[in-house]
Each structure stands twice: as C-alpha cells, then as structure tokens.
Design goal:
The complex is a heterodimer of chains A (about 300) and B (about 170). With about 300 residues, chain A is α+β, with helices and mostly antiparallel strands. Chain A has 2 domains: about 160 residues, no CATH class; about 130 residues, no CATH class. Helices cover about 50% and strands about 10% of the residues of chain A. In chain A, strands 1-3-4-5-6-2 form a 6-stranded antiparallel beta sheet. In chain A, strand 5 and strand 6 form a beta hairpin. Chain A is elongated, with a radius of gyration of 30 Å. Chain B is an all-alpha fold and about 170 residues long. Chain B has a single domain, classed as PhyR, sigma-like (SL) domain (Butyryl-CoA Dehydrogenase, subunit A, domain 3), CATH 1.20.140. In chain B, about 70% of the residues lie in helices and about 0% in strands. Chain B has 7 helices and no strands. Chain B is globular, with a radius of gyration of 16 Å. Classes of the chains: A alpha+beta (about 300), B mainly alpha (about 170). Chains A and B meet through helix 1 and helix 2 of A and helix 1, helix 2, helix 4, helix 5 and helix 7 of B.
C-alpha cells in the first residue's frame, strides 16, 4: 500500500570532479600539517625564549621574548608576585636566582620551561591556524583549538603552583633528606669547619627537630641554605649561641643540646664574628673588607691541624 | 572504516539530498564539502550502528539546517511557486530529448519540493529518494517511526496536490 503511494523523485548523481567535493578534507589535512609544524617551531622558540636577554638584534629579541614575556604576564596575573619571589634579596645573596618558584626546582621547571614551551606552541600554532582556509579553519573550530591550549597551560600553572605550595610547606616543616650548605655573601659554600657544621645540621634536621616557640635573638642568626633531595631548596637562619633554627617563613626549631654544643664550639671561633649580622646587615653599604671573604680565610687557617669529631 | 570508502558510499546520497533541499548546485557543492569534512573529522566516532549513508545524511541535514538558519532561513519555509526562479543547474546543451525531459521533470520536482516545509521535504527525500526505512529516517530526524509514517503520508498528499496543480 505504502509502496504504491511512493513518489517518483528523479535520481541525481554527482557528475563533477570528486576532488572538488573533498576539497575541504584536503585543505584540512594540509592545514593540520602546517599547524603541527608551526607548533613544533613554537615549542622550540618557547624553549629558547629566555635567550632574548642576550640577543642584540632587536627584531629577533622581540620575537624570542614573546613566549617568555607572555608566561611572566600569565603567572603574575594569576598568582601575583607569589610566583616570582626569586628576585628577593634573601635568595640573591646566596647567588641563587630563579625567577619563578625558587623553593622547588620542579615548580621552577614547570613554570619557566614547560609553560613557556606550551605558550610558544600555542602562539605559533594559532598563527598557522589563521593562515589556513577560513571555511575549514572556522572561528568556532579555533575557539576549541584555543580552549585546549588554555586548559593545557592553566593545568601547568596550577601544577607549578601546587608543587610549589607543597614544597614551601615541606620546607617549613624541614621534611626530606637535607643537604645543608652554609653560604657566604658571594654564594660560596666553605670547606673546613663549615663542613662539620653542615654535616651536623644535616644529621639533626634528618633526625627531626622539635618545633619550639622560643624567643629569637636576631643578632646572632646566620643564614644558610638547605637543599632537600635535590628538588627543593630553602633559606633558613641559625643561631649557634642560642641553639635554634628558623625556617624561611619563621617557624622556629630547637637544636638538640648535644649538637648545639659542638656547633657552638666550631662556630664561635670561625663564623660568628663574620656572619652573625642578621637581616639588617644586608642593607648595609659595602665596606672595603668583604665579610664573606674574611670568614673563608679564617676558616682555612683554623682547619689546619684540627681533627674533626 | 576508511574515509575513502565512506565517501564512495555516501557521495550521491548527500549530493542528491542537498541539491533537492537547496535547489542550487553551487550551494549544494559547498555544503557537501562541509559534510565530508565533518565525516572525515568524526569518522573515529562512527560506531556502525547505522549505515554510513544514514550517518552521512544525518550530518548533511545538520549542515543544511545550520546553514539555512544562519544564512538563508527562506530555505526552511514553504515557498510560493511564482517566487521560485530557474534552477542554477547546468542547462541541457546538446543532450538527447529523453535526457532533457528527465531533467525538466527533476527540475519540476525540485520546485514542488521547495513549496513544502523543510520537515516535509526532508521526510519525502529520505524515504522516497534515498529509500531509507522509517527507522532510519526517524534516526536522522530524531523522531519515532510512527511519527515519520504520518508525516510522510501528509507530505506526499501535499506534494501531489502542488504537482497536480502545476501540471494542470
């Protein structure tokens, strides 16, 4: 019954060139290849973006700087200056300078390298996208393309921030296997007695220090740096006379008596006279005599003929 | 499934559907390109629950609707016979008489179809031109086979009325 009522609609067969109907597919393939190529170039440009500082040829400098500067702008706009504390005086005096997240090498790597590489890829990929056929690479498809890049970059920012936050908390709690380095103002780690103190500090931090809300004596505090398991670093202060240690954010720990006594013995003769100046000393103008150098010389003199415990 | 095979299987179905829906071969070509691009992009999502032709026609309908809504809403409405101009398809040239008559009939059908609403045109084309089952037409239009049956019945009546009027 239904078959009888069927309409006779003349058949239509496409008689043109098949290539014409598949034109957009061909253009899409070619365009995708171009985007991939540009993205790879963008990754490379992003990776070497930091070299813009040393570049003298202005147009090249501008091109190189794009991913790095966008990265800086992104981190500062999302996380504020928390992301970029590497330039603080405390870190600079130790000759240790990273622009992003100095507390964690992993966070620094994510922020400084991975993010910049991703931004480079996104910028150059987008350039290739806009040079493609508008009918194939439409604005709607670009929004999806850009959205994917935004998610990837934001994930990287969140990861870097998360890793750093965890690192800062762990540093404050002195968690991990410590490698202690006492630094003078030129960023050098001294040998001699300092090595003894470093190993004693490592031992007592590794053993676990007791947190103590004690009265601080700022005058007698010495700066030093601890690296934990090669992935985290922090700047702490120690007071050999009073036998306590202050983590970067101000948490204080009591050093066990047996360690404190030995360290005090070593420190009184060699370090206290030079590096017990506290944070105020950092603002003091340079004098003809470098305290760090002096400390280094004294240390060498004292170590000759001494036996380590 | 490879794109080349999917293309071969659905080319004429997509082309025919779009030519009848738009009455404009240049536009049909443009929309077909978009249909095949979408097929190429989403081929991995095609699970072969329906035939490639059904899947391609579903995409073709979506592409047509999205184009018509944005650019030419008139394509969705039923049009007056008097307002329909000549088709943009190529003229007969040196073709035999039989072929010319066939083309004229096709042109007449196209014009009658344009006097129907988009949904009526679609059900007629999918059922009587593409020869799909009610279930397949239902899948393309997101309607149940029962609804499709009644719509086809009404659309055919309307088509015949318009066709008869013009013939007389």
């Amino acid at each position: 019954m239904e078959q009888e009522n069927k309409l006779e609609i003349p058949s239509i067969v496409y008689q043109g060139d098949d290539k014409k109907l598949q034109e957009r597919v061909r253009k899409f393939k070619a365009g995708t290849f171009r985007i991939v190529l540009f993205t790879i170039v963008g990754f490379i440009m992003g990776h070497y973006s930091y070299t813009y500082v040393g570049e003298n040829f202005m147009p090249m400098k501008a091109v190189l700087a794009i991913p790095y500067k966008l990265n800086e702008a992104l981190y500062v706009s999302i996380l504020g200056t928390d992301a970029m504390v590497g330039g603080t005086e405390e870190y600079c005096i130790f000759g240790f300078f990273t622009e992003f997240f100095p507390h964690s090498y992993l966070a620094t790597f994510l922020a400084e390298t991975v993010s910049t590489v991703l931004i480079g890829g996104a910028v150059y990929g987008a350039l290739a996208y806009f040079t493609g056929d508008r009918k194939v690479f439409t604005m709607q498809r670009f929004v999806k393309f850009a959205g994917c890049w935004c998610i990837a970059i934001l994930l990287c920012v969140v990861m870097a921030y998360g890793v750093n936050t965890k690192a800062v908390a762990d540093n404050e709690a002195l968690k991990g296997i410590p490698v202690v380095r006492l630094y003078d103002r030129e960023g050098k780690s001294d040998s001699g007695e300092n090595v003894v103190i470093e190993s004693l500090l490592e031992e007592c931090i590794y053993g676990g220090l007791e947190q103590d809300d004690l009265q601080r004596d700022y005058e007698g505090e010495v700066y030093f740096r601890i690296t934990f398991s090669l992935l985290r670093t922090t700047v702490c202060r120690i007071n050999f006379r009073e036998g306590y240690l202050v983590a970067e954010k101000g948490t204080t720990y009591r050093i066990p008596e047996e360690y404190a006594q030995i360290m005090k013995g070593y420190a009184e003769g060699h370090i206290l006279t030079d590096t017990t100046e506290g944070p105020d000393a950092l603002e003091r103008p340079d004098t003809t005599e470098e305290p760090g150098v002096e400390m280094h010389e004294k240390t060498e003199e004292k170590t000759r003929g001494e036996v380590m415990p | 499934m490879k794109f080349a095979a999917a293309y071969e299987e659905s080319r004429d179905a997509v082309w025919g559907y779009l030519v009848y829906m738009t009455k404009d071969t240049a536009l049909a070509e443009d929309l077909s390109q978009e249909v095949f691009l979408r097929m190429f992009l989403h081929l991995d999502k095609f699970r072969e629950e329906a035939s490639v032709r059904t899947w391609a026609l579903r995409i073709a309908r979506n592409v047509f609707l999205s184009y018509a809504k944005k650019k030419r809403p008139i394509l969705l409405e039923e049009q007056e016979w008097e307002n329909l101009g000549e088709s943009r398809s190529s003229s007969g040239g040196n073709l035999p008489e039989e072929e010319i008559l066939k083309r004229e009939q096709a042109e007449r059908v196209r014009q009658c179809l344009m006097c129907l609403e988009e949904q009526e045109r679609t059900v007629l084309l999918l059922r009587d031109f593409e020869e799909l089952t009610y279930e397949e037409v239902g899948k393309i239009m997101d309607l149940s086979p029962e609804v499709i049956k009644s719509r086809i019945y009404r659309a055919r009546q309307k088509f015949r009325r318009i066709y008869g009027q013009e013939e007389s």
